Amino acid sequence: MVVGGGQTAGRYDQHDDRTLDQVSKDADITQEVQRLLSQYKTVNADTKNGVVFLQGTAKSKYEVTSIINQIYMIEGVQKVVSYLRIKSPNKINH
Questions:
Q1: Residue 39's domain is classified under what CATH number?
Q2: Which of these, 47, 55, 61, 86, could form a disulfide with 29 (CB 3.0-4.6 Å)?
Q3: Domain limits at 44?
Q4: How much is the pTM?
């Protein structure tokens, strides 16, 4: 008898092809990235198969590059995919 149904042995769920081990590694990476991003209130991250996906807004291209470089230093990160936008400076109305 199987209790808790829906999960196959060693898999997270039927819609996720990662093993439980990979899900755990991805969660560890995401936690470390979130710690690093705590100073950047407008940036969010998620991880799948060692690939970190960034979303949100950064102040400059320099800030985006800095964030990405720091993330690559985290153990287990295979790649960083950035969907970060650069915040537009406030326009001055004359």
A1: 3.30.1340.30
A2: 47
A3: 18-86
A4: 0.77
